[in-house]
Design brief:
Elements lengths: L2 E3 L1 H4 L4 E3 L14 E4 L10 E3 L3 E11 L9 E11 L6 E6 L1 E3 L6 E2 L4 E5 L13 E7 L13 E3 L3 E4 L4 E7 L3 E4 L11 E4 L21 E6 L4 E5 L5 E7 L2 E8 L1 E4 L2 E5 L2 E3 L1 E4 L1 E2 L7 E3 L10 E8 L2
């Protein structure tokens, strides 16, 4: 059974994702990345705790070697007494250099330390806390083994025609001005998958084409998710008629596809849930030189 992440927890953060990661801990949405802000100013370091409870332990852990990042990360293990949905469970939190120690009591929203960018991060990934939740008697140090997580909020799917103008760039990414959050800070939104039937597609009995909010790295991470569904579903998932993959429950197995920006192949499309006014499609595109003001049309095609 999935552990619910209540609105009071998620509302402390600007963005979140269950699937937008290459690491096994996120398989099936068994971990959440919580983003207090974005790297638009390059200075986001605050690390508000998602839970209240007592710190069981902190330790330094080895990170994958990357030329642009330190070789170590940090793990904080907290025995939770709040929010109520997580009471009695244990949270394991990465990517924070701790200012707390074993035995400290922390309140939800209290700073745990300073966000760090270790070798677990691809260069296009914004600062965030990685959080997994498990039973108190489970091994808190293994990367896998956390419980499935379920956002306990409504996430508004935003229709997007794949077109936008570049409003921000980095060495490996570009952010578009679309889709636009209709009411920033009021609720979480995400890019909507297509819904409804396709008369030309043949599907297995009982399967259906479904809507929902897309989450994950398309296709640069192995799979993604579809959030905001009323229950488990199966069927093809698409965006603007371009097929992305096949849904099983809420997890998407991406097809062999390539994302195009103005007809040029790029690494992919970063999909997540956000409540901030800077929300817009994020293109992972170290191969293509895009500049602020450029008009971009995004599409997806099978990889030949």
């Amino acid at each position: 059974m999935a552990v619910t992440l209540p609105d009071a927890l998620l509302a402390r953060y600007q963005r979140f994702s269950l699937y937008n990661s290459p690491y096994r801990a996120h398989d099936g949405g068994c971990a959440v990345d919580l983003y207090p802000g974005t790297l638009r100013d390059g200075r986001t370091t605050a690390a508000p705790s998602p839970v209240s409870g007592v710190v069981r332990e902190t330790r330094t852990v080895r990170a994958p070697p990357k030329p642009y990042a330190p070789e170590h990360d940090h793990l904080i293990v907290i025995d939770c007494d709040g929010p109520a949905e997580l009471e009695g469970l244990t949270a394991r939190i990465l990517h924070v250099e701790p200012s707390v120690s074993s035995g400290d009591r922390v309140a939800a929203g209290e700073s745990l330390g300073t966000l760090v960018r270790a070798g677990f991060f691809a260069p296009w990934v914004d600062n965030h806390l990685h959080v997994g939740v498990r039973e108190s008697d489970q091994n808190p140090y293994r990367a896998s083994g956390s419980l499935p997580l379920e956002p306990g909020i409504e996430i508004e799917p935003l229709a997007w025609d794949g077109i936008g103008r570049v409003v921000a760039t980095g060495d490996t990414y570009a952010v578009l001005d679309a889709p636009t959050h209709p009411d920033p800070d009021s609720r979480f939104v995400g890019v909507a998958a297509d819904g409804g039937e396709s008369s030309g597609e043949r599907r297995a009995p009982g399967s259906r084409r479904v809507g929902g909010v897309l989450d994950g790295g398309l296709p640069h991470y192995d799979g993604g998710g579809l959030l905001g569904l009323e229950g488990p579903a199966t069927g093809a998932v698409s965006l603007n008629g371009d097929r992305l993959g096949v849904l099983d429950g809420r997890t998407i197995d991406w097809d062999d596809v390539v994302v195009l920006a103005n007809g040029e192949p790029i690494t992919g499309l970063s999909l997540f849930c956000a409540r901030d006014g800077d929300f817009g499609a994020k293109l992972i595109c170290p191969e293509v030189d895009l500049e602020v003001g450029d008009r971009v049309a995004v599409s997806v095609r099978p990889d030949p």
